[in-house]
Design goal:
186 residues, 33% helix, 7-stranded mixed sheet, alpha/beta, 5 helices
């Protein structure tokens, strides 16, 4: 069993220092609520977290899981591509966990078209030293296409404005999830 090397665990540990001072946080894909819970547990009491999902069931699960932190979470039943209609402030931290809702039908997935819009909007709103984490799941057809498009998009970002890293398990299947961490530097 993986402990340290599990992609999401490693990413969470990497972003902990940035979360300590984060005031505006976006979970662009709330899903079952695990990322929203992690963000709520590790941000200041006065932080504001926006949890987006297009599925009512996902937001209900997130709301239940994060009930102890609901005062600082706004649950948003909208596409992450529409985040600028909801989030007026600049963003300190954003997290995307792409793919489909675990435990549900796999036909409804995130897709590159809306993910690109959402990532572009987040990157424009990131504060200097703000962080955006994106976990890609290339284990299904839509996820593979989305991951390839995302990687190409992130490679084109200005190195003067952003630093982009990628964490991938090299001795696992090519379909294993992997993560991008983008930090705005200017």
């Amino acid at each position: 069993m993986q402990t340290v090397s599990k992609v999401i665990n490693l990413i969470q540990q990497a972003i902990l220092p940035a979360l300590k001072g984060a005031k505006i946080v976006v979970d662009a894909t709330a899903g079952n609520g695990n990322d929203t819970l992690f963000l709520a547990q590790h941000t200041p009491d006065d932080a504001k977290i926006y949890a987006f999902d297009v599925q009512t069931e996902a937001l209900q699960q997130t709301r239940q899981l994060t009930a102890d932190f609901s005062a600082k979470i706004e649950y948003v039943l909208r596409s992450h591509a529409e985040l600028d209609a909801v989030v007026a402030e600049n963003i300190d931290m954003a997290m995307f966990n792409l793919g489909y809702l675990p435990g549900q039908e796999h036909e409804l997935t995130t897709v590159w078209e809306s993910t690109q819009i959402a990532v572009t909007k987040v990157l424009r709103k990131l504060v200097v030293q703000g962080i955006c984490v994106i976990v890609a799941y290339p284990g299904h057809a839509a996820g593979k296409e989305e991951a390839m498009q995302l990687e190409a998009y992130l490679q084109r970002l200005s190195k003067r404005e952003y630093t982009v890293g990628c964490y991938r398990l090299l001795n696992h299947a090519a379909t294993a999830p992997y993560a991008f961490v983008i930090e705005k530097t200017r």
